[in-house]
Design goal:
Layout lengths: L1 H13 L19 E2 L7 E10 L4 H4 L10 H12 L4 E6 L21 H13 L1 E6 L23 H18 L5 E2 L11 H8 L4 E2 L21 E3 L2 E3 L4 E2 L4 H13 L3 E7 L11 H15 L6 E3 L2 H13 L11 H14 L1
The chain binds zinc ion (ZN).
Zinc ion binds next to strand 2.
C-alpha cells in the first residue's frame, strides 16, 4: 500500500513540472527571453474579462454569460451600448468541465451552442470586442492538492501544447477569430513551456501576468504597464482590478496615463462568486470609472482590445534582438512609488 502511494506521488506529482508560484528558485526559470517593454504614443485603456462560456449557471454556480440577451450578457450589452467606444477582450473557455470525467456538452463548437456563438460574434461586428482563448477546460487533473482551476500549473510541454491547440481549434471551428491567450487561474509551470505552446499555435499574444501572479509570480518578470516581449510573444499587462475601490482605480489609471501606459482592467464574466465579478456594485463602479476616464480628468486616453495593442507592439518588439535579456523591473518603479505616495 505504502509503495503504491509513493509510486502515485512520484508519477503524478513529483515528476510533474513545478508551478511558477511554487518554484523554489525563481531566478532559475528556464527558457525566459524577455524584451524591453514597448512604449506607447498615448495611454490606452483595455478591459479584459475571463470565463465567458455557454455552461449553464446551475452547473457552474454562476452566470458566465450562458444566456444570450439575459442575465450577465444583458448587462454587458447595456454597457457596450452606453460606452460604444470602449474595448473589451473576452477570454472564452472552449470546453468547460467541472471534473475530468464530466461531459456537459459545453464545447463552443457543438451544434447546440451555435446560437450562443452567433450572439457573441455579433458583438465583435458591432463593437470593439475581441475574443481570446482561455485554456481548454479550465481544469487541472494532475494534483488534487492544488487549485483545480489552474489548468497549466502541472502540465508537461506536450500536454500544454495539445491543450492550447485543442482549445484554439474549438474556438476557430465555432467561428471566432482568435489572436490571444490567457491561462486559467494565472499559474503556469516554471519551464515556461506554456508560452512556447501558445506561440506554436500561431497566436500573437499572451495576457499572462497580473501585478503579482502568472508571469509575475514571486518576482516581477514583465512590465505591469507596457507590453513586454517574452519568447517570441507579446505579453499584455493587467493592472487594475474591478474589486478595488473606485478611488483607487481612478488614481491608478491617472498614474498609468501619465506615463502613457496600458490601463488594463481585469474582470470576470460572472454575476457572482469570482473575484472582479460583474456584480451590480462592480458594474456601477465600472460605469463611474469609464465616466472618469471620459471626463478627461486623467488626460487623453485611447480605447482598444488586447489584439489591437499587441499587433502594434509586435512590430516594435520584432526589431529588438531576441536575446535582449530580462525585463528590468526598476522601469516600473517610478510609477509604483508615485501611486503609493498618493495613497498615503
Ligand atoms: Zn478563468
Amino acid at each position: 500500500m505504502r509503495r503504491r502511494i509513493k509510486r502515485t506521488l512520484l508519477r503524478h506529482i513529483v515528476r510533474r513540472p513545478i508551478p511558477l508560484s511554487l518554484c523554489s528558485d525563481p531566478d532559475s526559470i528556464e527558457g525566459g527571453v524577455f524584451c524591453p517593454p514597448w512604449k506607447c504614443g498615448k495611454a490606452t485603456c483595455v478591459i479584459s474579462m475571463d470565463d465567458l462560456c455557454p455552461a449553464p449557471a446551475k452547473v457552474v454556480g454562476a452566470d458566465l454569460g450562458c444566456e444570450p440577451g439575459g442575465g450577465v450578457s444583458k448587462e454587458l450589452e447595456n454597457l457596450l451600448r452606453e460606452f460604444p467606444h470602449i474595448g473589451i477582450t473576452f477570454f472564452v473557455i472552449p470546453d468547460f468541465r467541472r471534473s475530468p470525467a464530466s461531459r456537459g456538452g459545453y464545447a463552443v463548437n457543438l451544434p447546440q451552442n451555435s446560437a450562443w456563438v452567433k450572439y457573441y460574434l455579433e458583438w465583435a461586428r458591432k463593437y470593439q470586442v475581441e475574443f481570446g482563448v482561455h485554456g481548454l477546460h479550465h481544469f487541472q487533473r494532475y494534483n488534487p492538492f492544488f487549485g483545480k482551476r489552474l489548468e497549466y500549473a502541472f502540465a508537461t510541454p506536450a500536454e500544454a501544447r495539445a491543450s492550447v491547440h485543442a482549445g484554439l481549434g474549438m474556438l476557430t471551428e465555432a467561428g471566432f477569430d482568435v489572436r490571444g491567450f490567457r491561462q486559467p487561474g494565472w499559474d503556469i509551470n516554471s519551464d515556461l513551456s506554456l508560452i512556447s505552446a501558445v506561440r506554436s499555435a500561431g497566436l500573437l499574444y499572451v495576457a499572462g501576468s497580473s501585478l503579482d501572479a502568472g508571469l509575475n509570480s514571486q518576482r516581477q518578470r514583465v512590465s505591469n504597464l507596457f507590453p513586454t516581449g517574452i519568447n517570441g510573444l507579446v505579453n499584455m499587462p493587467q493592472n487594475i482590478e474591478l474589486d478595488w475601490p473606485l478611488a483607487r482605480m481612478c488614481e491608478e489609471a491617472a498614474r498609468i496615463q501619465s506615463v502613457r501606459g496600458i490601463i488594463s482592467v481585469k474582470a470576470h464574466v460572472a454575476d457572482r462568486g469570482n473575484p472582479n465579478a460583474l456584480t451590480e456594485k462592480n458594474l456601477c463602479k465600472l460605469r463611474r470609472f469609464l465616466d472618469f476616464l471620459g471626463s478627461g480628468r486623467s488626460g487623453e486616453i485611447e480605447y482598444a482590445t488586447f489584439e489591437k495593442i499587441a499587433a502594434l507592439a509586435e512590430k516594435s518588439l520584432a526589431s529588438i534582438a531576441p536575446n535582449a535579456g530580462e525585463w528590468d523591473a526598476s522601469l516600473d518603479q517610478d510609477v509604483k512609488r508615485s501611486s503609493a505616495e498618493a495613497r498615503i
